[in-house]
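Weekly structure sync, notes
Attendees: PL (lead), two postdocs, one rotation student
Agenda item 3: pending single-chain targets
PL asked that the sequence for the first pending target be pasted directly into the notes so everyone works from the same version. It is reproduced below exactly as submitted, 145 residues in total.
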Amino acid sequence: MAAPVQWARFLIVTIIASILIFVLDIAFHQHLAPVLFGDYPAADYPSRPPADIMPLLPFLFLTYLLQMPMFCYLFLRVYPGRGMGPAIWWGIWGGFFVVIPNMQFFVAVDHTTWKMLILQVIEGIALMILLTAIFEIAYRPKPRG
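Predicted structure, written out during the meeting:
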């Protein structure tokens, strides 16, 4: 049987961590990605104009507030013993599954480069490692048994 979840603590920790990951992800795409990719996004890359993206940011933020706590909840259930090692490992392989849609879009979306895809996968995994490490430190769930 899995350890009970301390829901108030869980939600506080995961929502704060989700906000941090959201801010870091936006910062990556606004500041670091243009440096890494040069012309980012490419002029012929199919995307919405920035003016159309801004009103959609609350929806994007909501997806983080849903996905990140679910990711942490799965960590609690997949690794009932917890610990920093399992948290980092879950961030690596669980994070890989989080970015699989990026790989699917790579096939379908014209003007997406291999470099862009590889860096998105690395970024996604790094953010999930950070998320689970923060969660493991801040939530401090008691191991089973």
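Discussion points:
- The two ends are 9 Å apart (CA to CA).
- The chain is about 75% helix and 0% strand.
Action: rotation student to compare against the earlier draft before next sync.
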